[in-house]
TrEMBL record:
Keywords: Repeat, Signal, Ubl conjugation pathway, WD repeat. InterPro entries: SOCS_box (IPR001496), SOCS_box-like_dom_sf (IPR036036), WD40/YVTN_repeat-like_dom_sf (IPR015943), WD40_PAC1 (IPR020472), WD40_repeat_CS (IPR019775), WD40_repeat_dom_sf (IPR036322), WD40_rpt (IPR001680), WSB_SOCS-box_domain (IPR051983). This is WD repeat and SOCS box-containing protein 1. GO terms for biological process: intracellular signal transduction; protein polyubiquitination. Residues 380-424 form the SOCS box domain. It comes from Accipiter nisus (Eurasian sparrowhawk).
Length: 424
């Protein structure tokens, strides 16, 4: 019977629409390279879309100008060996000071890289630190930083334009599994670690650690800010999904529903939805304001029965990402498939094959999905694109400024309230 359902799953996925491959960045290999340490645990796009970064394995992070990378795919075909791309991209001289011209960098982080995050500053956004008289770094409006989380618990902060190391943050005692910058330009950085804690850093205060968030009883796998930077979601082992108030640094609530470790999370662009991915073969879409599951995207048919609710090993969901149109979600699972979902449909709208995938994220404009694999390579696909309805655009505009409780108090028809709350 199990073999029958696996075959049914395969046939169902086979007849779905396939996503178009945009390009590949293949990590260089040599016969003496160890397989352990080559994993690409994280990929990231700069907030302004100027750069793409990924962990190439063996301590190396590659930074490439994204627009030039896309042009190379068009001119030279989809396949590129990661180090050979440098023959077609200008390399930055550290002393040139040409900050307005994106250039490629290869960064040796000194240890295995588990996490990456871009951060950009807004000068008028004040630091929360007490000492404002003197700082080692003065971040300007054009500042773009890259944070790397390492196997030894350190976090290194790099200047994207020059490739220079700016800060070395040391407080975690285990692997730094994820990093996220506050989207408001404050350069507040949150790190998630296997030491069961989240730590909040203020890079405008020279990397001062402001707060330690405790509550997880096991490894913390991931974290994500809401678009307005007021809420932080953290996920980890033992089915944990926590929401934190980032003004008070206190826990808001714990979301319960997953049946296995939760490994990834991301908010929708309007902050009204939260997607979480778990080893229980499911992606849940929550209303984070009231803690209710609105949608479930299963990667195993039929869904696991209660006695096997933890899911099947070959269907573990590794990563999830929200598109910037607020309509599409991408998920990556151990069944060698990337799936694209619409938030109002039960089944994937597109799929793409991928062996040994570990992470995925949408480009800044939402037109491309990047996915990293165990051998340090990156694969890119064109994403489902359509013109958003006027109703959806209005819903996103309203939900950016109104939580669910306020929407439900509006003097409007119940069906409109349900639509604004993503319940229909």
């Amino acid at each position: 019977m199990l073999a029958f359902f696996k075959k049914w799953n395969f046939l169902f996925v086979f007849f779905l629409a396939r996503s178009r491959t945009v390009g590949e960045l293949l990590a260089p290999t040599s016969p003496f390279d160890k397989k352990c340490g080559r994993e690409n645990w994280t990929v990231a796009f700069a907030p302004d879309g100027s750069y793409f970064a990924w962990s190439q394995g063996h301590r190396i992070v590659k930074l490439v100008p994204w627009s030039q990378c896309l042009n190379n795919f068009l001119l030279h075909g989809t396949k590129n060996v990661a180090n050979s791309i440098s023959t077609r991209l200008p390399r930055q001289n550290s002393d040139s000071g040409q900050k307005n011209k994106p250039c490629e960098h290869i960064i040796d982080c000194g240890d295995i890289v588990w996490s990456l995050a871009f951060g950009s500053s807004v000068p008028e956004k004040q630091s929360r630190c007490v000492n404002i008289e003197w700082h080692r770094f003065k971040f300007g409006q054009d500042q773009l930083l890259l944070a790397t989380g390492l196997n030894n618990g350190r976090i290194k902060i790099w200047d994207v334009y020059t490739g220079k190391l700016l800060l070395n943050l040391m407080d975690h005692t285990e692997v730094v599994r994820d990093l996220t910058f506050a989207p408001d330009g404050s350069l507040i950085l949150v790190s998630a670690s296997r030491d069961k804690t989240l730590r909040v850093w203020d890079l405008k205060d020279d990397g001062n650690m402001m707060k330690v968030l405790r509550g997880h009883q096991n490894w913390v796998y991931g974290c994500a800010f809401s678009p307005d930077s007021s809420i932080l979601c953290s996920v980890g082992a033992s089915k944990a999904v926590f929401l934190w108030d980032m003004d008070k640094y206190s826990m808001i609530r714990k979301l319960e529903g997953h049946h296995n470790d939760v490994v990834a999370c991301e908010f929708s662009p309007d902050g009204a939805l939260l997607a979480t991915a778990s080893y229980d073969t499911r992606v849940y879409v929550w209303d984070p304001h009231i803690g209710v599951i609105l949608m479930e995207f299963g990667h195993l048919f039929p869904p696991p029965t209660p006695i096997f609710a933890g899911g099947a090993n070959d269907r573990w969901v590794r990563s999830v990402s929200f598109s910037h149109d607020g309509l599409h979600i991408a998920s990556l699972a151990d069944d060698k498939m990337v799936r694209f979902w619409r938030i109002d449909e039960e089944y994937p709208v597109q799929v793409a094959p991928l062996n040994n995938g570990l992470c995925c994220t949408f480009s800044t404009d939402g037109s491309v999905l990047a996915a990293g694999t165990q051998d340090g390579s990156v694969y890119f696909w064109a994403t489902p694109r359509q013109v958003s309805s006027l109703q959806h655009l209005c819903r996103m505009a309203i939900r950016r400024v109104m939580p669910t409780s306020q929407v439900k108090n509006l003097p409007i028809p119940s069906k409109v309230v349900e639509f604004l709350c993503y319940q229909i």
